[in-house]
Amino acid sequence: MLELNDIHTFYGPIEALKGITLKVNQGEIVCLIGNNGAGKSTTLMAISGILKPKAGTISFIGSDISDMPPHSIVERGISHVPEGRRIFPRLTVKENLEMGAYTVGSRTNKNKKLKSQFDKVYEMFPVLRERERQMGGTLSGGEQQMLAISRALMSEPKLLLLDEPSLGLAPIIVSRIFKAIQEINQEGVTILLVEQNAHAALNLSGRGYVLENGRIKMHGQGKELLNSEEVKKAYLGE
Amino acid sequence: MKKAPIHRFADSPIHRFTHSPIFIALWLALLFLPFKGLEAAGVLFIVLFAAVSLLRVFKNYAGKIKGLLSSLKKFISGRIRIKLPESKTRSIALTLLMSVVVMALPFYGHDYLIDIAVLSGIYIILAQGLNIVVGFTGLLNLGFVAFYAIGAYSYALLNTKLGIGFWASLPLSVMLVTLSGFILAIPALRLKGDYLAIVTLGFGEIVRLVLNNWDSFTKGPNGIGGIEPPHIFGMQISRLGQFYYFIIIFVLLAVFIIRRVAASRIGRAWIAIREDEIASSSIGINTTAYKLYSFAFGAFWAGLAGVLFAAKMQFVSPESFTFMESVLILCMVILGGLGSIPGVILGAIILVMLPEMLREVQLYRMLALGSGLVMLMIFRPQGLMGGKGVSFRS
After folding, report:
1. Topology classification of domain B101-379
2. Distance CA B202, CA B355 (A)
3. CA distance A31 to A16
4. A192 strand-pairing partners
5. Quick one: how far is CA A146 from the chain centroid?
6. What is the pLDDT of residues B11-34, one digit of tens each?
7. By CB count within 10 A, which of A8, B58, B195, B328 is most buried?
């Protein structure tokens, strides 16, 4: 479904990604783990077009998206939940969700579609319905993360990019979020997940990639990586 | 628990001295001394000393006074029941009353008042234009006056050089200004925050300097006179009263259109960009295009205001388009409340009226205006009618 082929990106003179090649198949949960600065978030930003790769190709369902601007990539069915949630703090929860459906607005029978999208995310996170009229910025961290994920789902993505959804959240909320990720996946959305919380992420994922210094160090089945001595030592602290 | 160091500082003799009324008054009087001389500084010292001391005393009793007032309120409302009409009818009545006051102004106001009202109208359109860029989209533009100037000069030149009338030049001038908005936006929108502000500031100065120095074309600092006022059905709009209604039509048009646009997909995209640019692009908003539209749409209204200004004054010169003018327009937007359409109307009216009303105390006019703005930013940072605060992030 998604294929990255030898992607290089730069922040000024610094090469952040030094040739990333990875593949995500339809219906999978794939996770990227690695230390701070390994290039996990950068990889997601390259996919969603926020950062243009200097070299390499990204293809999504058969077409090359490496040169597309972010908004066309969203229209093709990739939704990105950026790191640190980035909800709109001074818009209400409902307005945040409506903004998430921005690309839906140009399609036909949008009202019906919007309503079913709202029902879907409210069913997944009932707390958002309760908070519908509240400003996004007044929500707790966990609720903001739920809102950020819901907002990304409003555009009916085929592929969801999640950047550290567990960042700064209490363990009980983290498990709630991870459960939701699983639910979303079961409904047919392919997921590419970036996580610091390597243990939980690998448990959830079918496959995983380990990044180090802008390169892919190893990849394999989630369970396999969990049991690998190297991963254990470097990321699981065992 | 340990006491925070700030508390210890608050009790220190230095702190007590710097916060004493006599120090505050002395300090401000000294600042004032080089500008207004010894006498004015002395007066200021006495006034400030008295005012600050009084405030201190008042502060000690503030709680008691508040309690007294609220019990008084309870007492009164317990005794007398005033039947207030329902809020909806009340607001309709208020709107009606206000529109009568506004529409009938030329019948009861003298020329001076009408003149100021016409000027307010032009500034309302101008400030609404800037509100689109700064208030909705969150792009700080410090050279907004450039678009106003281009609008005014293009009507002046089209009219005096080519003899084109108001109605034919209006679309031409406004289109030209919108285009210049696009042209400025293309390089400027690669920049963010402070850098964008500086580039726009530079643009404003460039336009003014070109107008000032291109003698053969713009007549330089002498300005262009003899601009024709507009005609409607063969009737010349030159009397103040007529011009007043003429401006009102444009103000209503501007407010109506901007309201509609702000509530549309485009307006929502602007607000999203203001709130978080990265998030906006990640939900599928073409941020570059919408920032461009915002700049051009804002410039459009500045151009219209410029044409109206030239038509009203029948004279334009670079003096009317200085950097201070950009700052004044920005103050109107901030005073009223960023992103609030009624707020910006109020802000524009206040900042046009206030200097006129303070003409009596000529010397202290700018001082009063400045301290008023400082007070506002301290006590109501979101502006008079702004509901949602805004930060300049992009």
Report:
1. ABC transporter involved in vitamin B12 uptake, BtuC (1.10.3470)
2. 27
3. 19
4. A30, A161
5. 13
6. 677 777 777 778 878 887 887 777
7. B328
Q: Quick one: DSSP state of residue A102?
A: T
Helical (H) or strand (E) element with A215? strand A215-221
User: Nearest Cβ partner of A88 from B265, B279, B288?
Assistant: B279
Q: How far is CA B34 from CA B41, B136, B200, in A?
A: 9, 41, 33
Report domain extents, chain A.
2-236
Fold held by A2-236? Rossmann fold (3.40.50)
Domain residue spans in chain B? Answer: 5-78, 101-379
Chains A, B: CB contacts within 8 A come to: 71
Would you call B268 and A100 a contact, using CB atoms and an 8 Å cutoff? no
* A189: helix, strand or coil: coil
Residues of chain B neighbouring A154 (CB-CB closer than 8 A): 283
Length of chain A: 238
Q: Which of A225-234, B1-10, B81-90 has the lowest mean pLDDT?
A: B1-10
For helices A141-153 and A93-100, the axis angle rounded to 10 degrees is 30
Query: Which segments within B207-307 are labelled E, that is strand?
Result: 224-225, 231-232, 235-236
What confidence tens digit (pLDDT) does each residue in B201-260 have? 999 999 999 999 998 998 989 999 989 888 888 788 778 888 999 999 999 999 999 999
Question: C-alpha distances in angstroms, B232 versus B101, B166, B246?
Answer: 25, 10, 10
Give the per-residue pLDDT at B79: 63
pLDDT of residue B177: 96
Tell me the one-letter amino acid at B70: S
Q: Quick one: tokens of A42?
A: 């950068």
Name which residue leads in pLDDT, B298 or B237: B298
